[in-house]
Every structure is written in C-alpha cells, then in structure tokens.
TrEMBL record:
Superkingdom of source: Bacteria
Keyword DNA damage (UniProt): yes
Residues in RecF/RecN/SMC N-terminal domain copies: 3-329
Species annotation: Novosphingobium aerophilum
Protein name: DNA replication and repair protein RecF
Length: 368
C-alpha cells in the first residue's frame, strides 16, 4: 500500500492515533467533529506546503498537548519502504520539521517521494474566490506530477518578495541589484508558468478522452499574468519598474496567473454555475488528474465528504474511476451507506473523539 503504519501524535484532537493495515480504499467514518478531516489533514502534511486547511502550524498541535505534533507513515516504494515524518517541536511550534528515513530534509523534497491530491468541502468556493486560490490549486496539481515545481515556486516567491521590498524603499533602488533579482524572478517564473501550462494541456487532453463521464465537463484555460517566456518577462519587469514602484508591488508575472474554468456545452464561466455543477467539475478535474500520475511515485488521494453528496450513478462512476487509478484513496463520511459499492475492498476506520479503530466487516476479523 502507498502509506501504512500511520501515526498521529498530538495532532488536533488526535492524541495518539495509529492506522495499520491500510487498503487501496480507506474509509474514515464517524460523527461530525469526530476527527476524520483531521486524519486527512495529517496525511496532507506528507506533501510540501501548509496542508489541506492551510492552517498555521501552531493551530495544528493539540490544544491540550505539549505544544508540538508529529505525523509519520511508511511509504511503499519500488526500492523498499521509506519512513516519512513531519511535525513541530514544542519549543519551536512555528517551524516544520520533515524527515525521510529519520534524517532531516527540506519540506520541498517530500514531493519526490509521494504524489498527493485532495478535494475538500472548502474547495467548493474555488471558482468564487480570488485567483490566488486557483493558482495554489493548480500548483498542487503540478507538484503531484513534477516534484521540482516546489523549488521553482519557492524561488519565484523569494525573488518577488525581494523585488517588492526593493521597490517599496523610499530611495531609488540600485538598478544592478534589480537586474539580478529580476533575472532570478524571470528564470523561476518562466519555469512555473511552463509547468502550469503543461498541466492544463495534459488535463484538457485527459478530460477530452473521457467524454461520457457523468460529471459536468470543464474546459480549462491558462490566463497568464505576464509574459511566459524568460527573456520577455525580464524585459517586461524592467519596463514596469516605474509603474511597479508606484504600485509598490510587481504587476506582471506568473504570480498573477489564473486558471479559467468554463462548463463545456453550456459555455458558462464556472463562477456562474450552480454549486453542484462547480463541485462536479472539481471532481472531474480531480479524477482526470489522478489519471495523469505516473508510476514513479506512490500517490495518495484525499476526498473529504465527496461520496455522500453524489447520486448512486455518479458515486459508482467515482468509485470505478478511482479503482482504475493507482492512487491510494482516503474517503470520509458520517455513515457507511454511501460506500456500499466498495465496502468489500476497503479498510474501514471508525473515528470517534479523536480515536481511530479499524472496523472489520462481520466474519472478517483477523486471527490473532
Ligand atoms: N488544535 C486542536 N486541538 C484539539 N482539538 C482540535 C484542534 N483543532 C481542531 N480540533 C477539534 O477537532 C474536531 C474537528 O475534527 P474534524 O474536522 O476532523 O471533524 P470531522 O470528523 O471531519 O467532522 P465533520 O464530519 O463535521 O467534517 C473539532 O472537535 C475541533 O474542536
């Protein structure tokens, strides 16, 4: 299995939770507030970034715990098991520690081991929010396929921060210094833009090959926030210095990109579609993306409260598609009924009050 022997220590309402004996489908079932999404969030910290809630690290540590948290899991790879771990120490609750086989490593490198995707109820607002949320969404999809994207995105962010800082100074910035920063910005920016563009092309291709899927079909387009070519971006940045100085921020570049989604057939912008249509398009994108994952790295797909909202036909289509994919899937729900189509192939985990117990189907208890 992609991930197994999962441990959560002082992670939100989980004091000490272990999940052992995972399956291709894993169902986390329990009442509202039991701690199901918290398990998904813990798993999402096995990727670079801030996890599926984008929470501050200090908020993640259990309120009644020692102040830090820990998440670890065994990952099955072609070259044997690898132990991934992450968390914070009580004395520095804002600093994330990442370990691979117990050796500390930068968080961006987690992407080299595991492809991770998720769909949560909070993402229902993706098409209504500002472009930043869609860029983050897009970047996560890219990252699952191209782990080097995390490094380029971090370089872009650093160069942007530095350029904006220089432009905000009361005196005229040193042009040679600006030249150097803009060269870095354009180098990383062109790589980020190209990767986003490749992803949208690949997703569009995958969606076109799956015309009879029962979810509303999205058309995807890349709206570039500036020139995508490195040399053209360097020129645009240099030309825009005076304007950007007045605005006190950089007004051109991939940090202003957007993902434009339209519902195919209707030709209606996603933001104007119904909530159900928007959700269906997100599911279609998520499933198309899962089909793009290569065999190089194990993959994980976290689907929070997705199944219960679908009618039986779409639920079965979702399960069929997931079954055909290669990602280990984690689904949450308040009851088992929506999962009847996959119960005999799933590991069922009962979640209650921050505890998780493996539930065995009647007659299938393991022998001690
Ligand atoms: N830092 C924290 N320390 C302790 N408990 C926390 C912390 N953060 C959140 N919680 C608790 O975790 C619980 C929510 O867990 P979670 O979001 O995983 O629920 P859920 O099972 O997914 O519920 P639902 O079905 O309503 O989505 C809440 O009771 C909340 O108070």
């Amino acid at each position: 299995m992609a991930l197994d022997r999962i441990l959560l220590g002082h992670f939100r309402n989980h004091r000490e939770t272990s999940l052992d004996g995972t399956a291709p489908f894993n169902l986390l079932v329990g009442q509202n507030g039991a701690g199901k999404t918290n398990v998904l969030e813990a798993l999402s910290f096995l990727a670079p970034g801030r996890g599926l809630r984008r929470a501050a690290l200090a908020d993640v540590a259990a309120q009644d715990g020692p102040g830090g948290f820990a998440v670890s899991a065994d990952l099955t790879t072609p070259s044997g098991p690898v132990r991934l771990g992450t968390g914070t120490a009580p004395e520095r609750p804002g600093r994330r520690i990442v370990q691979v086989n117990r050796a500390e490593t930068p968080a961006v490198r987690l992407g080299e081991w595991l492809s991770l995707g998720w769909l949560t109820p909070a993402m229902d607002r993706l098409f209504m929010e500002g472009a930043g949320a869609r860029r983050r969404f897009l970047d996560r999809l890219v990252l699952a396929i191209e782990p080097g994207h995390a490094r380029h995105a971090a370089q872009l962010e650093n160069a942007l921060r530095e350029r904006n800082r220089l432009l905000a100074e009361p005196f005229e910035p040193d042009p040679a210094w600006l030249d150097a920063i803009e060269a870095q910005l354009a180098e990383a920016g062109a790589a980020v833009a190209a990767a986003r563009h490749r992803l949208i092309e690949a997703l569009s291709g995958a969606l076109a090959q799956w015309p009879d899927q029962p979810f509303a079909r999205p058309d995807l387009a890349y709206a570039a926030g500036g020139p995508v070519d490195r040399a053209a971006l360097v020129a645009a940045l240099r030309e825009g210095r005076r304007r950007d100085r007045a605005a006190q921020r950089t007004l051109t570049g991939p940090h202003r990109d957007d993902l434009v989604v339209t519902m195919a057939g209707k030709q209606q912008r996603a933001a104007e579609c119904s909530t159900g249509e928007q959700k269906a398009m997100l599911i279609a994108i998520t499933l198309a993306h899962a089909g793009l994952l290569d065999d190089d790295r194990p993959a994980l797909l976290l689907l929070d409260e997705v199944a219960a909202h679908l009618d039986p036909l779409r639920r079965e289509a979702l399960f069929d598609r997931l079954r055909a994919g290669r990602a280990q899937v984690w689904l949450t729900g308040t009851e088992l009924a929506p999962f009847s189509g996959i119960l005999d192939e799933a590991a069922v985990w009962r979640v209650s009050g921050g505890h998780v117990e493996r539930a065995w189907p009647a007659g299938a208890q393991p022998r001690e």
